Amino acid sequence: MTLNRYNIIVVIMIPALVPILGTPWDVLPPGVHGATFAEVEATFAYNLPRRALFVGLLNASVALARCGCRFVFLDGSYVSGKPIPGDYDACWDPDGIDFDKLDPIFEDFDNGRANQKARYGGEFFPSTLIEAGLGAAFKDFFQIDRFTGKKKGILSISLSSDDTVSRRIKR
Question: 56 and which of 90, 120, 141, 168 could share a cystine (Cβ 3.0–4.6 Å)?
Answer without folding.
Answer: 120
